[in-house]
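Both lines are given unchanged directly below:

***
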Amino acid sequence: MVWLAIIMAVVSVAISYRAMNQGHDAPDMQEPKAPVIEKGKPLGVVFGKIKITSGTVYWWGDVSYSEIRK
């Protein structure tokens, strides 16, 4: 049973090392695409349970980013 654990650990380390050393290029940083509110569109208020067919996003969160430097 100990041998099985040792073999699994060696295989796991080998797979992790191989995945870590593959030469993938990082994707380009894209500008976040947050939905915007249309001027003049009424703001919906929901009371109870209903099915919303066309929702409006009022706040999307902090969409700023900063470059990570090592």
Notes: The chain has a mean pLDDT of 77. Helices lie at 2-20. The first helix runs from residue 2 to 20.
